[in-house]
Amino acid sequence: MPLRYSESFLTRPIQAGRADRIRGAEPRQGPRLTSARTLVDEGAHVFITGRRQAEPDKAKDAIGRNVTTIQGDVANLGDLDRLYAIVKEEKGALDIVVASAGFVERRATAVATPEHFDKTFNINARGVYFTVQKALRIAAQGRLDRARVVLPASDGTARARDLRGD
């Protein structure tokens, strides 16, 4: 049975015992937790990461089985290397990567700083990009035609006056 998260993208069944990674799954963030639960229900072992260890641990408690949690920051390439070394050591390969980032710290455009921009971009864009790039090294035991990458998106729109700071 295909994963229901995105039937048009994931067209093959999850293979029991294979490893998948959900980045940033937190119990209060329904879609991420639902994705992880669905993968486990289909027989996968999921690796959940987050900057604060308590958040992935809450997701693990909510799911109950077949979950490994690893503290890490996707903006830190060393953390990503450590994550995938653990996945490779424990499971040997990775079938699916669900990479999403959700850092939002609203600033009016007039007062946004280069530091704020760099932090936001490093997590939401650079972090997701390198999460996928580094995962491909161990994806589906070198069979990239079998690997799946899911990049959930959210609507982060803002009204113009919010950006101006009115």
CATH superfamily label: NAD(P)-binding Rossmann-like Domain
Task: Determine the structural class based on helices, strands and strand pairing.
Answer: alpha/beta
Question: How many separate structural domains?
Answer: 1
Label the overall shape. globular
What's the CATH topology name?
Rossmann fold
CATH architecture: 3-Layer(aba) Sandwich
Give the oligomer, counting copies of the same chain as homo and different chains as hetero.
single chain
Description of the molecule:
The protein is an alpha/beta fold and 166 residues long. The chain has one domain (15-153): 3-Layer(aba) Sandwich (Rossmann fold), CATH 3.40.50.720. It has 5 helices and 5 strands, in the order E-H-E-H-E-H-E-H-E-H. The protein has helices at residues 30-41, 54-63, 77-91, 114-135, 160-164; strands at 19-23, 45-50, 67-71, 96-98, 148-150. A 5-stranded parallel beta sheet has the order 3-2-1-4-5, with helices on both faces. Strand 4 (96-98), helix 4 (114-135) and strand 5 (148-150) form a beta-alpha-beta unit. Helix 3 (77-91) packs parallel to helix 4. The longest helix has 22 residues, at 114-135. It is globular and about 50 Å long. The chain starts with 18 loop residues before the first strand and ends with a helix. Mean pLDDT is 75; it is low at 1-17 and 24-28.
The gist of it:
The protein has five helices and five strands, in the order βαβαβαβαβα. It has 166 residues and is α/β, with parallel strands linked by helices. It has a single domain (15-153), classed as Rossmann fold.
